[in-house]
C-alpha cells in the first residue's frame, strides 16, 4: 500500500531515483555482530554504503530525501509543515559513551533555523531534560522517555504536577516508584557484566551493552529479559545495542507525535504535513502514524538496508544536517518570494 502510494507520488512528481552526492568514505560498523546496529555515521574506515550488500536496491525502495527534496517541497507548498526529530543517531552520531553523544554546532544551527519556520519537536528515548541539555535550543518542543514526558506549548497544558513540572504531559507518572525500583534491580542484574551500564531515562530505563564484550551479549539480554518478563508492569523494546525497559502502557513515539500535533493546534487541520526523521526501531511507531494519516513524510536514517515503513531515507546525521539546512533555506526563499 505504502509502496504503491510512494510509486504514485514519484510518478506524479516526475521523480527519479539517484544516489546523493555525498562523500563516499564512511566508517566500518563498530559492532558487526549486531544486525540491527548501523554505524550512525561515526566510525572511521573504508566501507562505502553503496558497497553494503543490498543497499542500492534498498535505496530504490526508500529513496534519499535529499534527492526527493524538490518533490517534498512541491507537496509541502501552501501546507503547514510540522517537523519531528529523533535525537541519537539522527541529530547526533552514535558513539560508544551515551554521555558523549553531542550534537555539532552546525546541527544546532540547522535545527534552530528549521524551528524558526516550522513548529519543531524532538522526540527521544532519553530523559527530556537530558535531550534539552544536549540540544540547547529554546525554540523547539521536547518529548523524552519515548514520548512519556512531553513539554507541550504552554497554551496546551494537559497535566501539571505538584513538583513544579507545570505543563509536562506524563502519562506514566503513576509508574515512577515502580520504575525506580526496577532501576535498582537492573543495576544488580548487570553489576557483574563488564561494560554494561544503566541509563535512567526517568520513565524508562536503558540497559546499554555497546561496551560489553560480544560473548556476553546474549547472557545480558537473557538476564534482563527474564527480570522484565516477571514484571507485568513493564515491557522491553530494543534499540541500537540497548535494551529499553518501559512501563507497559500503550504509548509510544507515534502517540507523542499525535499529541504534539493536537496541542500545537493541528489535530483537525486538513493541510498539515508532518515530517519525522529518525533512525531507530522505536521511530517506526511515528512513521506508522504518518503513514496512516496519508499526509507527511516518514524519513529513516540508515546506511544499511533495514526493515522500515519509512518512505524516504538519509544515510547518517551529516545527511540529516544537509536536509534540514535545505528545508530552512527553501522556506526562507518562499517567504522572500511572496513578499
Ligand atoms: O530515541 P533516541 O533519541 O534515538 O534514543 C534511543 C537511545 O539512544 C541512546 O542510545 C543510543 O545512542 C548512544 C549514544 O550514541 C549509544 O551509545 C547507544 O548504543 C545507542 O543505543 C540513549 O543513550 C538511550 O538511552 C536511548 O534509549
UniProtKB/TrEMBL annotation:
<feature type="region of interest" description="Disordered">
    <location>
        <begin position="21"/>
        <end position="46"/>
    </location>
</feature>
<comment type="pathway">
    <text>Glycan biosynthesis; trehalose biosynthesis.</text>
</comment>
<dbReference type="InterPro" id="IPR003337">
    <property type="entry name" value="Trehalose_PPase"/>
</dbReference>
<protein>
    <recommendedName>
        <fullName>Trehalose 6-phosphate phosphatase</fullName>
        <ecNumber>3.1.3.12</ecNumber>
    </recommendedName>
</protein>
<dbReference type="GO" id="GO:0004805">
    <property type="term" value="F:trehalose-phosphatase activity"/>
</dbReference>
<dbReference type="Pfam" id="PF02358">
    <property type="entry name" value="Trehalose_PPase"/>
</dbReference>
<dbReference type="InterPro" id="IPR006379">
    <property type="entry name" value="HAD-SF_hydro_IIB"/>
</dbReference>
<keyword id="KW-0346">Stress response</keyword>
<dbReference type="InterPro" id="IPR023214">
    <property type="entry name" value="HAD_sf"/>
</dbReference>
<keyword id="KW-0378">Hydrolase</keyword>
<dbReference type="InterPro" id="IPR036412">
    <property type="entry name" value="HAD-like_sf"/>
</dbReference>
<comment type="similarity">
    <text>Belongs to the trehalose phosphatase family.</text>
</comment>
<dbReference type="GO" id="GO:0005992">
    <property type="term" value="P:trehalose biosynthetic process"/>
</dbReference>
<dbReference type="InterPro" id="IPR044651">
    <property type="entry name" value="OTSB-like"/>
</dbReference>
<comment type="function">
    <text>Removes the phosphate from trehalose 6-phosphate to produce free trehalose. Trehalose accumulation in plant may improve abiotic stress tolerance.</text>
</comment>
Amino acid at each position: 500500500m505504502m509502496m504503491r502510494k510512494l510509486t504514485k507520488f514519484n510518478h506524479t512528481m516526475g521523480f527519479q531515483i539517484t544516489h546523493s552526492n555525498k562523500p563516499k568514505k564512511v566508517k566500518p560498523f563498530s559492532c558487526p555482530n549486531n544486525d540491527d546496529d548501523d554505524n550512525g555515521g561515526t566510525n572511521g574506515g573504508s566501507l562505502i554504503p553503496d558497497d553494503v550488500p543490498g543497499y542500492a536496491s534498498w535505496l530504490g525502495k526508500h529513496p534519499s530525501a535529499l534527492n526527493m527534496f524538490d518533490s517534498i517541497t512541491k507537496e509541502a507548498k501552501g501546507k503547514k509543515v510540522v517537523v519531528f526529530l529523533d535525537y541519537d543517531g539522527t541529530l547526533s552520531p552514535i558513539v560508544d559513551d551515551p554521555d558523549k553523544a553531542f550534537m555539532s554546532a552546525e546541527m544546532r544551527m540547522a535545527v534552530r533555523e528549521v524551528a524558526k519556520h516550522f513548529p519543531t519537536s524532538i522526540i527521544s528515548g532519553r530523559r527530556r531534560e537530558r535531550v534539552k541539555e544536549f540540544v540547547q535550543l529554546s525554540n523547539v518542543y521536547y518529548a523524552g522517555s519515548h514520548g512519556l514526558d512531553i513539554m507541550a506549548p504552554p497554551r496546551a497544558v494537559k497535566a501539571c504536577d505538584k513538583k513544579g513540572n507545570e505543563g509536562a504531559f506524563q502519562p506514566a507518572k503513576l509508574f515512577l516508584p515502580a520504575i525506580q525500583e526496577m532501576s535498582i534491580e537492573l543495576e544488580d542484574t548487570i553489576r557483574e557484566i563488564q561494560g554494561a551500564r544503566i541509563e535512567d531515562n526517568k520513565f524508562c530505563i536503558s540497559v546499554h551493552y555497546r561496551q560489553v564484550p560480544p560473548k556476553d551479549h546474549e547472557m545480558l539480554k537473557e538476564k534482563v529479559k527474564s527480570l522484565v518478563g516477571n514484571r507485568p508492569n513493564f515491557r522491553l523494546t530494543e534499540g541500537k545495542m540497548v535494551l529499553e525497559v518501559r512501563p507497559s502502557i500503550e504509548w509510544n513515539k507515534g502517540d507523542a507525535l499525535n499529541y504534539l500535533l493536537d496541542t500545537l493546534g493541528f489535530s483537525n487541520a486538513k493541510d498539515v504535513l508532518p515530517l519525522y526523521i529518525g533512525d531507530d526501531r522505536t521511530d517506526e511507531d511515528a512513521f506508522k502514524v504518518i503513514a496512516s494519516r496519508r499526509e507527511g513524510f516518514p524519513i529513516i536514517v540508515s546506511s544499511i538496508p533495514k526493515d522500515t515503513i519509512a518512505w524516504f531515507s538519509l544515510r547518517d546525521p551529516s545527511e540529516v544536517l544537509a536536509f534540514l539546512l535545505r528545508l530552512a533555506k527553501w522556506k526562507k526563499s518562499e517567504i522572500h518570494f511572496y513578499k
